[in-house]
Specification:
The radius of gyration is 13 Å and the shape is globular. β3 and β4 form a beta hairpin. Strands 1-6 form a two-stranded antiparallel sheet. Strands 2-5 form a two-stranded antiparallel ribbon. Strands 3-4 form a two-stranded antiparallel ribbon. 24% of the residues lie in helices and 21% in strands. It has one domain: Alpha-Beta Plaits (2-Layer Sandwich). With 91 residues, the chain is an alpha+beta fold. It has three helices and six strands. The mean pLDDT is 93.
Length: 91
């Protein structure tokens, strides 16, 4: 089973009222490029105009972006509120 197939069985409980990660889309371009490459969920994406698009809804809560971009592109990072976020399932 591939990593993508395993991740596909996970369930996400999205908290529409609380974005647990806030980013500065106009932040340091080098850090943005790093986040695009490092995020295992692929949530940091450059659009056709080179602008950053980000959606916290598919976050795996691994903390990679916290380590790679805290204080530059990642303005705030928290775990989702209780009962929200990713629910890992064995596939």
């Amino acid at each position: 089973m591939t990593v993508e197939e395993k991740l596909a069985v996970d369930k996400f409980h999205v908290d529409e009222e609380f974005a647990h990660i806030e980013v500065d889309k106009d932040g340091d371009a080098k850090v943005i490029d790093r986040l695009v490459k490092l995020c295992p969920a692929g949530l940091y994406v450059r659009d056709e105009n080179g602008e950053l698009t980000f959606d916290y809804a598919g976050c795996l809560e691994c903390g990679t972006c916290l380590v790679a971009g805290k204080g530059t592109v990642v303005k705030s990072w928290n775990y989702p509120r209780g009962g929200m976020g990713v629910e890992f399932r064995l596939g």
